[in-house]
Amino acid sequence: MPAQPDASAIYSYLGPVGTFTWTALNQAPDAAGHEWRSVNNVGEALDDVISGRSVGAMIAIENSVEGGVSATQDALASIPGLRITGEYLVRVDFDLVARPGTALADVTTVAAHPVAYAQTHLWLDKTVPTHAHLPATSNVAAPTALLGDSPADAAVAPHGITQHLALETLAEHIGDNTNAVTRFVMVSRSGRIPERTGADKTSIIVELPSDAAGSLLDMLEQFATRGVNMSLLESRPIGDELGRYRFVIDLDGHVHDERVADALLGLKRFSPRVTFLGSYPRADRKPVVPENRYRDEVFIEARDWLRGILSGEPDAGDVDAGVAPGQHGAADQGPQAG
């Protein structure tokens, strides 16, 4: 019988209720009906997973405007045994909220998470040109503080936060980029790799053996020669000395795809460290269709061909051409004088 789900499972997320991470966790089927634990940062969320307090943690890993989330990337590189089991996309939409009775003209100080502030500062500079920024620890911590003794007059908050907090909306949709999206991933300690769907992504972290000329090209060729597309490539300093970097990479495809598996084997041959973070369904469910020469069957056929050569079997090409083994030389010599 299949294992029954753990009724006591706990999932960690950057809280409190109403954050974009909370919204992402609402998209995860495995987390439905279980306890959700609000934490203050990525480190605490991953520590919950490593310690066993939580079976999974929802964390932000990439933003369409700001790029990769460095704190998440560095944590995944330094903490062993973690696996990404799914990804979720959340549209980044901000409102400006305040205490009841506050007018937009009254705003002089705005509380906001630094990332949220970076994504709304053009609107703020134009609409509230003399405002000061008060940093907050999360997108919900900023408006929540307004219910206490915060010196801020208003806060940048996720759209719809007034459904959870007794605040009023001064302005809606104030983000500078209306197409902004944040990508979240579910991280666990499970060794189970989600089944291949045909619309998958594989995440890895790779270190180069040196900063010698051509090292980066050697890494990139492992993917190019096997038809594996990279949807994310970002460098992060390793931290032990200048000039030493690791690369955070997302590949289109699943580790069970022959081309992806072969690329990982190629990486492992020359890289001092390859960290496999997981293969999982793409959030957009867009199928990954390789060129014909990179289909699984082509890799399998090539392996079978080589296996036949090593075992002494006749080359299928020779048999198809009607040439018996060992006759190439005789044919090349031409007719003999009699």
Automatic annotation (TrEMBL):
The keyword Ubl conjugation does not apply. Residues 204-281 form the ACT domain. One of its GO terms (biological process) is L-phenylalanine biosynthetic process. It holds the Pfam family PDT. Its EC number is 4.2.1.51. One of its GO terms (molecular function) is prephenate dehydratase activity. It comes from Schumannella luteola. Keywords: Amino-acid biosynthesis, Aromatic amino acid biosynthesis, Lyase, Phenylalanine biosynthesis. This is Prephenate dehydratase. It catalyses: prephenate + H(+) = 3-phenylpyruvate + CO2 + H2O. GO terms for cellular component: cytoplasm. It is an enzyme of class 4 (lyase). Residues 10-189 form the Prephenate dehydratase domain. Pathway: Amino-acid biosynthesis; L-phenylalanine biosynthesis; phenylpyruvate from prephenate: step 1/1. Residues 316-338 are annotated as: Disordered. PANTHER family: PREPHENATE DEHYDRATASE P PROTEIN (PTHR21022), PREPHENATE DEHYDRATASE-RELATED (PTHR21022:SF19). The keyword Amino-acid biosynthesis applies. The record marks 182 as: Essential for prephenate dehydratase activity. SUPFAM superfamilies: ACT-like, Periplasmic binding protein-like II.
